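Quick one - first record:
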Amino acid sequence: MTQGLAEQVAGTIPSRLLGGYQHFRADRYPSQARLYHDLAAGQRPDLMVIACADSRVDPATIFSARPGELFILRNVANLVPSPSGRGSRSLGAALAFAVGTLCVSDIVVMGHGGCGGIAACLQMHDGVDHSADHVAEWMQEALPARHEVDRMHPGAGGDARQRLLEHVAIIHSLANLAAYPPVPTALAAGRLRLHGAWFSIGEGLLEWLDEESGRFVPVPEVAAGPA
């Protein structure tokens, strides 16, 4: 009876997920069984990453992280709305847990090239009711960043304007992030640092926000050793 039910359930699982899980159980889990056993007792990541929901940008892959090392929150365009803005309750709960309970030492807001949410924001018009379009309604949180880009770079267009907004939206999100409790207290006590990052999908390259200059700078690569 149990075997038959298991086979019945397996038939309802998308084949990619079923095959991936079976590979995990046969290959990856046996080599990391002790790690998962220890993680079952609780998590204690030092780092939080706020990333885009885009399927091409996986923080754990980019940073070569093992299970339990990163506390990850993903949403469309990796936005941090103002504490009184759209979706702030969900983000606020995640931050309260990450900072207040897990005591993470660093939070990274990581954007990426070719972001669909940012592209949608660039097509939006001010003063239009976006309540029927969930993507546009959410991306209104990035309009202040878009206004800054248009004001500071009036001649920018195409890919340049897209990348500028991807960068500036990260900076605006960091400013909003600093206002969520208990983030200000942790920052003042020196227990927490905030960072901005941007990932190029096609090149596989990461840029890091330099606080002093306000520029995104390529992260140095370490050459691979001899095979």
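second record:
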Amino acid sequence: MKANKQPLGVFDSGVGGLTVFKEIRRRFPNEDIIYFGDTARVPYGPKSKNTVIEYSIQNSRFLMQQNVKLIVIACNTSSAVALNVLQDNFSVPILSVIEPGAIAASKITKNGRIGVIGTEGTIRSQAYTKAIKLIDSKLEVFSKPCPLFVSLAEEGWANHPITLKIVEEYLNGFEKEKIDTLVLGCTHYPILKEAIRQVVGDQVALVDSSIAILADMEDYLAESTETETGKDLFFVSDNEDKFKAIAEDILNITDFSLSKVKLGESWYIDHILKG
């Protein structure tokens, strides 16, 4: 892809995609990035496939209105059920977090036993199992939905005592499966990484797809010759104050542009990026 100053687009159902945003900003410091969190409709995991596809199309259309040159689906549920639809209907490259996470897990595992945790929608789709088996059919995959993790992350409860108890309830079953690698199959889950690590132990490698996707992005983005740091714009569909508080904690920043939008509205923000 030819280097240009069009922004990158990132969307998620809420705050979880900020873990992806953080890694993209670190790796591509000169790129402008527009982030949309669909906080009015989070979580996506329990919703039907058609509803998630509909939301994902709306999210992508909003980002396209901002003239983005690439879209990252920073939501595993959307990636699992909507990726092909989005790629067929939008003109820019659209990348998902699932394949990079699957590749990373297949490279890391030593005993061939991989655990995957995600939302109900992601686990139901078997997207990770299929992706991992496509890489190596001999690998064994053990999947577990952990739907409450999204709510804990959205509430900013990463260090709340109840979080560790809920993580234990969900993950203790993996011990008997003898996994040596665990895919955090939802971008909200790295927010809870400390609690997850306490439960599964240091002997289990944690795969964070927010880091794994960077290699895919490098294939599409030319190295920038810009010396100026890229601009960040954040949009949400509801709960600006809660999003801002969590974003400040995850990104370690306090001054950033955050706006509430209703999907379907046409936003023209070139003046913000150039200002």
